[in-house]
Amino acid sequence: MRRFWFGETDLAPVALFRILYGLLLFNWVWQLYPNLAAFFTDQGILPRSSVLQHYGDRFSLLDLVGDWWQVAIVWALGLLVALLLTIGWHSRLMSFLAFVVVSSFSWRDPLILDGSDLVFRMLPLWLTFTDSGALWSLDALARSRRGDAPRRHGYALPVRILELQVGWIYLATGIEKMGGTLWPSGLATYYALQLEHTFGRAWAYPLATNLTFTHVLTWGTLAVELGFLPLAMLPSRVTRLIAVLAAAGLHLGIIALMNVGNFPVIMLAALVLFLPGDWVAKHVASLGYATRARIRPPVIAWADGVARDAAELHLLPRVDLPVRPAAIDRPIASFALVAVAAFAFATGVPAQLEAVRPAGDLASLL
Questions:
Q1: pTM of the predicted model, to two decimals?
Q2: Is 76 left (phi over 0), alpha (psi -120 to 50) or beta?
């Protein structure tokens, strides 16, 4: 268990997640474009004066601008951040800027938030502390051009906290459901799947009226949400794979029966973090070979030439290998990261644990 949390871990899953998150973030930002004026300007449904009055403790870059063209500049920069994160250019910085971008749009208009927005906001914060650019990135290419050896393994703790955030989403959601009556009684999906005018798909209605099916689906959802974190955070490949398969089945079922936007897609992408690193590296390599085989050789040669010229002209980022902390530095840094994570998770506990949630000025600061 100590090696699992504080030893070394394969960085292939977190590198692949960086790519998937970057692509999904690009789509998330792109989807905002038709409603920039309605949701994020002073002429829209929530002017900045109202935001400052009702949500004054939430920081947003969009608090500084109010016209459409100004918001559009921030939106375009968000697309650029997503693209640079996908290709792994200064991956740590881009991860943090992704957190700032999502937070800025989310807190500018809290009236339109949904579950996927919260996931998109939380994950890049913890991704910032990982070495997600170690593989399949411009950061890795820059190191290889200087003759540095590629890195497949890195410090485990930041990756575990990122995984723990994903598991916390499942656990907190399951505990929240247990506080009501419809989920423990097995009737929640009976009602949810009949919301054809909002979320339920047309073909879900016949299934919703089958009480046996709805009982299985309701209790199965609870089992997955309550069991995911204990299974996924054990140093066992078997239990982690069981958690991944169960959660993937849950989200594929949501996609098939309900239309709830980006939430099941980002959660499916996050499951990559729990896959064995050797599996991920093998399949990414196979995909790379298959892709190159389908691209005409002149195109490949042109791309390789561009990368070589960029390296020679110092256009690729200089990414130095991090200096391994001294014996006393790593425990201090690890303790600080754990403390930050504990405070952050405490702000999102379920209603049944309200007593441990920070309140007042401390909550606002967090």
A1: 0.89
A2: alpha
DSSP secondary structure of 27-48: HHHHTTGGGHHHHHSTTSSS-H
| 14 vs 22: CA distance, rounded Å | 12
Return the C-alpha torsion angle 356, 359, 361, 366, nearest 10: 60
Alpha-helical regions (H) of the chain = 2-6, 12-30, 36-40, 48-54, 68-87, 91-108, 115-127, 138-145, 156-178, 182-185, 188-192, 204-208, 211-232, 237-257, 263-270, 277-294, 297-312, 329-346, 360-365
Compute the radius of gyration of the chain from its Cα atoms.
22
Contact status, residue 108 vs residue 62, Cβ threshold 8 Å: yes
Per DSSP, the three-state class of 154 is strand
CB atoms within 10 A of CB 61: 17
| Distance from the Cα of residue 268 to its chain's centroid | 10
Structure tokens at 15: 């590198």
pLDDT, tens digit (0-9, with 9 covering 90-100), for 294-326: 665 666 566 666 666 655 555 555 555 555 555
Q: Give the SS3 label for residue 337.
A: helix
